[in-house]
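Standup notes, structure subgroup. Blocker cleared on the uridine 5'-triphosphate input:
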Amino acid sequence: MRTVYAPLMAAATNHTPPRKVVIPAAGLGTRFLPATKAVPKELFPVVDTPAMQYIVEEAVRAGLTDVLVVTGRGKEAIADHFDRAPELEATLLAKGDHGRLEAVMRSADMADVHFVRQGAPRGLGHAVLCSAPYVGSEPFAVMLGDDLIDVRDPLLSTMLEVQGAYGGCVVALLEVPRNQISRYGCVAASRTHDDSVVRITDMVEKPDPDAAPSNLAIIGRYVLSARVFDALRETEPGSGGEIQLTDALKSLVAAGEPMHGVVFRGRRYDTGDRGDYLRAVVRLACDREDIGPGFRRWLEDFVAGRA
Ligand code: UTP
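Run returned:
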């Protein structure tokens, strides 16, 4: 990616790179009830780390340390997780447990995490609109609070490079089986010189498989221009009665905004979906140096019916 886009980036003048990232985390998490009645799904542990911490770590690796989390009622624990915990830190320090002390402090120190409340869960587009006063007029990233991208398969940093090259907006895309496209936003797109980047010509939220323009589904990473806020202000409730980000992006494309998609071929988990959440926990546990070997042995025995 770096070599492909370097000449284009050099040619781009007056490009303001995104510095801020918005993480919408105000959804009700109904697919995971009753667990989400009192506990935000964004804090569900993937092994021993809340799902959302992986997302903030991904932002930091891509160079974005100014984070705004959009929360809602019952999500206060998210702020606690990204804050200092003086009593806990003092106890761990007194015990000489430096490993855990470092882990506890890391979530508070790794980024500047700010919060805004959505008020009522009126949809992803509305959650993004709540970030407008904070974001201002510069381009920014959006990372969904329940969409976990494997650390070994960088996505956001690639999207930032593509946005630097083409300007406008960039969305992350996943090729899905046709019969699953109705769960996602979907794009119509044409090829570019790079087989992992497409130029988007239209979008539709949750299409019928028969009417879908492609099998390219929008997943939870976006790099957006601030023009999306004007589009969102004009967007009426759409699929599910919610204000859909896809509908606002569709109107931006129609108005001539450059819109590209990065086709992601790595490992990704929707931790708001029970099956995907379990796959994320098992995969990441198997890959861990500390608990991985023992867990794998148990898993092999379990699958073979010996455990
Ligand atoms: P999802 O549709 O995956 O989340 O939204 P949800 O609405 O919580 O899930 P279910 O379908 O009821 O199980 C994608 C992202 O957008 C956020 C969610 O928190 C999630 O990170 N979101 C969604 C908001 O912040 N506000 C909303 O009004 C809706």
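Discussed briefly. Confidence is low (pLDDT under 50) at residues 6-13.
Next: hand off to the docking folks.
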